[in-house]
Amino acid sequence: MQTARLHVAIPVRGVGRWLDAALESLQRQTFDDWTATIVVDADPDETDPCDEIARRWAADEARISSIHPGRVGLAPALNLGIAGSGAALIARFDGDDLCRPERFAQQVAFLDTHPDIDVLDSFAESFRDPTDGILPPGMLRYQHWHDSIEEHDDFVREFLVENPVCHPAVMLRRQALGRLDQPTAPYRRGDFPEDYDLWLRLLRGGARFHKLQQPLVRWRDHEQRATRSDLAYRKAAFFRTKWQHFAERILPEAGRIVVCGAKREGRRWIGALARAGHHPIAVADIDPRAIGNTRHGAPVVRLEELGQFRPDLALVAVGTAGARGKIERALCQMKVRCLAVAGIAG
User: Fold this and answer.
1) Per-residue pLDDT tens for 48-72?
2) CA-CA distance, 209 to 173, in Å (whole number)?
3) CB 7 within 8 Å of CB 84
4) Domain segments of the chain: what residues?
5) Are 174 and 88 a contacting pair, CB within 8 Å?
6) Nearest by Cα to 306 from 275, 278, 327, 276
7) What separation in angstroms does the CA of 307 have from each of 48, 188, 301, 312?
8) How many distinct helices (H) and strands (E) make up the chain?
9) For all residues of the chain together, what is the average pLDDT?
10) What is the pLDDT, as a whole number, of residue 227?
11) E strand intervals along the chain
12) Would you call 329 helix, strand, or coil by DSSP?
């Protein structure tokens, strides 16, 4: 039997109420040269309905198989799903989301005509079931920020702010995983977001990213999502992943650093820099109540005073809506190179 061009990895746990609809959306794809592996990440005694649903679909749909390894965790489940085929292209999908019928066709066509792109994201339409209420303001802000990122340079600019990639909307080239230490097990288990960790490691390996400006996935938001319930997705875990990337790729050549932001976001970076023996030479803030204080020995000054310190790099670490843009414009006028490490609110 000839290997399909595209293989889809679908780890599932606790999404039984939505899984049939998710798999039906795969069946409706206009591109049909695909296979999929459902990995049921649940112990047999959990009576997770995903187990029965996955077995039924594997019996009825020749392109779908299911494996039932027990409770292994999300990262190992993802690796098992990817290992299910030798297809040149890999797509991610979750059992609580929905694919637009043209998703696979558009992503495959783009990768066919853009051989330089390794990881392809798309817009994703966030929604909630009526019984789950309206989308939270934070999700709407994230959606707006996510949809502002398209070209590879946009990803590079925004990667330390938050995760700019919608995981269940991704399609990537299998050969891109060869940039990793363990290409057959690209997802790592740990106290960190497994997808964000993977994207940053691929970025360090030279992978190029792009995002299609069409909503090809309907991204269901609910309170049971791993991003809301798993400690690996908390801010502290995200920060550790950010810092590892920054310390490896940016810090060695950063030179004299200033931090813009003396509040919570800024303090994380000031503390991490100090612990690494790379104390910022100054901290800037737009709140007059912070001016004149110190952070790890660095003076807190007005933003317009930064130029006199002659920094090589300014880290913009603010979360207040509108503050990031104001700071970036001021730094541009002062001809100070900057890198945003927080601020999806603008």
Assistant:
1) 899 999 999 999 999 999 999 999 9
2) 11
3) yes
4) 6-239, 252-340
5) yes
6) 327
7) 59, 42, 11, 10
8) 11, 14
9) 93
10) 65
11) 6-12, 34-40, 64-67, 89-92, 98-99, 119-127, 171-173, 209-220, 257-260, 282-285, 294-295, 298-302, 313-316, 338-340
12) helix
Q: What tokens does 294 get? A: 């110190």
pLDDT tens profile 163-180: 999 999 999 999 999 999
pLDDT in tens, 75-121: 999 999 999 789 999 999 999 999 999 999 999 999 999 999 999 99
Residue 34 pLDDT > 60, yes or no?
yes
Angle among Cα 257, 260, 265 to the nearest 5 degrees reads: 110
Residue 138 is encoded by which pair of tokens? 């934070």
Report residue 284: phi and psi, to 5°.
-110, 145
Nearest to 170 by CA among 112, 94, 228: 94
Q: What pLDDT score was predicted for residue 114?
A: 98
Superfamily of domain 252-340: NAD(P)-binding Rossmann-like Domain (3.40.50.720)
Q: Would you say 118 and 90 are in contact if contact means Cβ atoms under 8 Å apart?
A: no
Q: Domain spanning 6-239 has what CATH number?
A: 3.90.550.10
Q: Cα(212)–Cα(150) distance, rounded to whole angstroms?
A: 7
Mean pLDDT calculated for residue range 3-24: 96
d(Cα 287, Cα 304) in Å, to the nearest integer? 12
